[in-house]
Amino acid sequence: MAPLFKQMTIAGVGLIGGSLASIARREGLVERIVGLGRSQTNLDVAVERGMLDAATRDPAEAARGADLVVLAVPILSMRPTLERMRAYLKPDAVITDVGSVKGWVVRELEPLLPTGVALVAAHPVAGKETVGAASADPELFRGRRVIITPSAKSTADAIAKVEALWTAAGACVIRMEPDLHDAILARASHLPQIVASVLAAVLAEERVGGLLAADFGASGLRDTTRLAGSSWEIWRDIFISNRDAIVDALHLFGSAIEEFQELLEIGDLTGLERLFNRGRAMREKLVQ
Amino acid sequence: MAPLFKQMTIAGVGLIGGSLASIARREGLVERIVGLGRSQTNLDVAVERGMLDAATRDPAEAARGADLVVLAVPILSMRPTLERMRAYLKPDAVITDVGSVKGWVVRELEPLLPTGVALVAAHPVAGKETVGAASADPELFRGRRVIITPSAKSTADAIAKVEALWTAAGACVIRMEPDLHDAILARASHLPQIVASVLAAVLAEERVGGLLAADFGASGLRDTTRLAGSSWEIWRDIFISNRDAIVDALHLFGSAIEEFQELLEIGDLTGLERLFNRGRAMREKLVQ
After folding, report:
1. In this complex, which of A187, A199, A236 lies closest to B206 when CB atoms are compared?
2. Cβ pairs A/B, distance under 8 A
3. Cα-trace Rg, chain B
4. Strand, helix or coil at A210?
5. DSSP assignment string, chain B
6. Which domains does chain A have, with CATH numbers?
7. How many angstroms separate the CA atoms of B60 and B89, rounded?
8. Are the beta carbons of B52 and B166 closer than 8 angstroms?
9. What is the pTM of this model?
């Protein structure tokens, strides 16, 4: 079988980019894999692990000859990265990304594309807590959802190739409008992150009678605040690039917290039970 | 060593009561253990597993001869249970409990105590997801905190005995005022439960473009909503009996959610970063 791409360039050889390189290699999808990065140490790790054929910190060098460019850098770094690569892209190159927000990415990148260059934005929905090429894992996406958000600059051929890459990774590929993706992820992913961070922030210094309340939490507090350990740098970009949808999701949640509080204050046990059991039903469906 | 109590009666032989019975037996703290329950099937399990010397569904029979009575029933069932036992208690019996709320328990039970009978309210802070005597585990409390909340009807001797029971269970015993306990647990335990339940309830039927948002959550959504699977019956009692402290905790949290939303709307990244990183700092301390 001929490889899908002759050369694949990965901008940002972290957990996601590095895992994708390992998969492309293992599945024989590409002949040559080039990594673009800022940290020479991290690039060296990726080369040593056999994930890359070449590594560079020069966007022009990384762009040259690439049939597929994967932008695996933080969301707000995508535009400047592509700006530095665009003059050196092949006229039929395909650009894709792995960002958690899609409308912003499409709107930022499409105007930069030279004629003939296609964009197929994508989001692998994979839980991740480690960073860097050292933690790359070719099994990272198996059984996970990858959401492809075709837009004006997506050709049928480019979509098919990007989908083939993710299918080879063992992921379940689905297509969605970019803004629909962002509204859904604001609720299913960005909201839980904020809820966990705010709960942890509220308890960070909360003392009663001189005692730190958080010292008396059990496993429930640990689970509910686990996401609060996430990196600000990654989430800053998500908050900026998906602001409106996140504000909507926070409205929904804030109103429900207020409703719970009011039901509790007036002692409406029927209302509380309904709200509580709606949560339990969702949870039971989730763990099925 | 002489046993701490000749007879210990456990009202409610579930996970907590059953585990406590197993510990008392293993450590030789009591000569005879009697279980009081409503479900004959569950009592039979406890007898078969050697946790009880006798099992009954009659409060009078359970009360007779008990040196220690452990109320391990839901919080709102404690008063009616003790009402049915009180006429048959030994004049020097010690009453204790394992409820998650302490001020209410002390206020409800103290007026019922015959002269000479002591009350030492206690709360083992142990994460638990299973129920019934079948899931009892003598290691359940090892390394956990047990909060003892002495009150007007606690004698020094009774406190010492109840603390000795929990120390034998491998728990770390601390003392606290009942209302201080409730304010702290409202923040560290009851608030996370409500946050998880409300988040899950909000997402239960939340659809965008016909798609169920919760279907697109990853491990973060699962962790943050894990507590939403808890039993309404247990939490109803906690919500009723610790209402004021929980309302205070919800105020704190609701205001912080509102603050986050406002910072996001005006694009105050410095403020968002401060809030986010306060959460991360709490989290890092929690996992140490």
Report:
1. A187
2. 308
3. 22
4. coil
5. ---SEEEEEEES-SHHHHHHHHHHHHTT-EEEEEEE-S-HHHHHHHHHTT--SEEES-HHHHHTT-SEEEE-S-HHHHHHHHHHHGGGS-TT-EEEE--S--HHHHHHHGGGPPTT-EEEEEEEE------SGGG--TTTTTT-EEEEE--TT--HHHHHHHHHHHHHTT-EEEE--HHHHHHHHIIIIIHHHHHHHHHHHHHHS-EETTEEGGGG--HHHHHHTGGGGS-HHHHHHHHHHTHHHHHHHHHHHHHHHHHHHHHHHHT-HHHHHHHHHHHHHHHHHHT-
6. 5-176 (3.40.50.720), 180-286 (1.10.3660.10)
7. 8
8. no
9. 0.93
Rg (chain A; Cα; Å): 22
Pairwise CA distance, residues B130 & B16, whole Å? 10
The first and second tokens of residue B79, run together, are: 């008063």
Of B216, B228, B247, the CB nearest to A265: B247
Task: Check CB contact under 8 Å for B188 and A273.
Answer: no
Task: Give the residue from chain A lying closest to B199, CA to CA.
Answer: A253
What does the pLDDT look like over A96-128, one tens digit per residue? 999 999 999 999 999 999 999 999 999 999 866
Can you tell me the distance from the alpha carbon of B162 to that of B160, in angstroms, rounded to the nearest whole number?
6
Reported residue count of chain A is 288
Place of tokens 């939303």: B261
pLDDT in tens, B187-223: 999 999 999 999 999 999 999 999 999 999 989 999 9
Q: Which chain B residue's Cα is nearest to A202?
A: B253
- The residue among B278, B256, B265 whose CA lies nearest residue A240 is B265
Q: Output the pLDDT for position B28.
A: 94
> Chain B contacts of A193, Cβ < 8 Å?
220
User: Angle B252-A224-B147 (CA atoms, 0-180°, nearest 5)?
Assistant: 75
Instruction: Give ∠ CA B30-B34-B40 in degrees, rounded to 5.
Output: 150
Sequence-distant (6+) residues with CB within 8 A of B147 are A216, B102, B122, B123, B125, B174, B175, B176, B181
Whether B283 and A223 lie within 8 Å, measured CB to CB: no
What confidence category does residue B128 fall into, taking pLDDT thresholds of 50, 70 and 90? low
> Which tokens is B47 given?
């007898």
CA A179, A124, A286, A215 torsion-angle sign:
negative
Half-sphere exposure of residue A73, counting CA atoms within 13 Å on the CB side?
20
How many whole angstroms separate alpha carbon A62 and alpha carbon A37?
9
Query: Any residues with CB less than 8 A from the CB of B5 and at least 6 apart, and which?
Result: B29, B30, B31, B67, B68, B94, B161
Question: Which residues lie across from B145 on neighbouring strands?
Answer: B125, B172
Q: Which candidate from A188, A239, A285 shows the least CB-CB separation from B264?
A: A239
Read off the tokens for A127.
């839980």
* Torsion B20-B25-B27-B28 (CA) sign: positive
Report the chain B residue with the minimal C-alpha distance to residue A224.
Answer: B224
All residues of chain A having their beta carbon less than 8 Å from the beta carbon of residue B126 are 218
pLDDT over 90, % of chain B: 93
Which of these, A279, A275, A250, lies nearest to A261 by C-alpha position? A275
Instruction: Specify the DSSP class assigned to residue A35.
Output: E
Nearest C-alpha neighbor of B84 from the set B62, B104, B56: B62
